[in-house]
Amino acid sequence: MTTFFEKGGMVTLFAFDGKTDLPQGRGWWSNVYWEVKHDANGKVVVMVAQKEKAISAATRAFEEARRS
Prior knowledge:
The protein is α+β, with helices and mostly antiparallel strands. The protein has one helix at about 50-65; strands at about 1-5, 10-15, 25-30, 30-40, 45-50.
């Protein structure tokens, strides 16, 4: 899914239903920022964006959704 955060920019999200071997983390590679997040059930979301502030906005939204 690709979404737009008004205070960040465009982010593409990849969600995996099953467990994967992707460790949590974040970084920058080939002009793209990325972050891997795990939820409490072990499901994985990978966020990819061209702007670091877009990843930060998506991470905040992810954390808010987890708390709800």
